[in-house]
What we know:
CATH class: Mainly Alpha
Helix content: 55-70%
Low-confidence stretches: none
Amino acid sequence: xxxxxxxxxxxxxxxxxxxxxxxxxxxxxxxxxxxxxxxxxxxxxxxxxxxxxxxxxxxxxxxxxxxxxxxxxxxxxxxxxxxxxxxxxxxxxxxxxxxxxxxxxxxxxxxxxxxxxxx
Length: 119
């Protein structure tokens, strides 16, 4: 994948975030590829979190029809809208699948105070 130069346009970042999460979901059976995409998602997420409009996009993604997009965005939103994000993550715990496993791990770390938002 060609890396796009850093963008400050929130709409572009949001589109990249969604696209990368969908690519990550498809790559889950290939750990090397999924991990590389994970890093790209995180880089875009950090940029979105730094803008009020970006945080609003992340909040909107908590209503996305795709479970992976809801998982990633709700995990990010725990920092500033924990009640809503926890509700989304709890809803992702069923049915059992890879996303429910991630949701349970995020909630466990969040409730134990081990989840970091500044990395």
